[in-house]
Amino acid sequence: MSEIKQQIENINNEFIEMVGGSFVRVDTGELFTLAEVKKYIAKKVDILIHKNLDETKRVAFETLGVSTEQTLIKKRSKIKPISNRSKYDGGEFNMAYRSGIERVFDMKLEINEKLVYYVLRDFISYPSNCIMINGQIPTMIELESIIGLKERTIRKALKSLEDKNLIKLVQSSHRKAIYVNPEYYASGKDLLTETLKMFELLECDYEKIEEYINE
Predict the structure, then answer these.
(1) Judgement on whether residues 45 and 106 belong to the same structural domain of the protein
(2) Nearest-CA neighbor of 55 among 68, 41, 70, 40?
(3) Which InterPro entries does the record cross-reference, listed alphabetically (predicted)?
(4) Does residue 81 have a cis bond before it (omega within 30 degrees)?
């Protein structure tokens, strides 16, 4: 037991807490959030537990001829898979959060801002939450025909919406890509990490953790 405790302490010592609540990984210097550190440690400890469980099973079988596999299968059988889960994890629907709707309402958007925002958000694509029309980033001419406003008015409204953090405008070749803040309206549950980082919504970068776990 003391050996396992030491291994857990070693995992914890892979990080140093910085001023402000962030953490830095000792060997690489990469920054981690508190949520990421907790998730990383939890996964490493889980792997450690399973390794020791396998060792316990091996010793029990070699010395006593006892197999614990039947018990483990019985425990797992209690977990029933969620039917059609992929339908809800993917981008087959749009999500509007009640608290987000209330906050947008409290922003008291001007009439042109409302028109631009509510028309465009129904064109968000999964999993980026970027506005796409016919599979491409729309031009201003296309936006004019869809929204029914002149380019100058649309640009002004977009700038105001960006200032309110409802959207982000990102230069993409000769066009401006429009990303809708998924905190208020999302194209699905599992959005791109880059989009979540863009709006500072990512507490835990699971892809980063998996890279360290599997190295």
Answers:
(1) no
(2) 68
(3) WH-like_DNA-bd_sf, WH_DNA-bd_sf
(4) no
Report pLDDT for 82: 36
Over the chain, what is the mean pLDDT? 81
Same-domain status, 105 and 191:
yes
- Within a domain: residue 211? no
Q: Distance between CA atoms of 47 and 24, rounded to whole angstroms?
A: 22
Please tell me whether residues 34 and 111 are part of one structural domain: no
pLDDT digits (tens, 9 = 90+) for 35-70: 888 888 888 877 877 777 766 666 666 666 655 444
Range of the domain at 172: 95-198
91 contact partners, CB below 8 Å, separation of at least 6 = 125, 126, 127, 187, 188
Residue type, 84: N
Question: How many other C-beta atoms can be found within 10 angstroms of the C-beta atom of residue 68?
Answer: 12
Domain membership of residue 138 (yes or no) is yes
Could you tell me the pTM of the whole model?
0.61
pLDDT given at position 75: 37
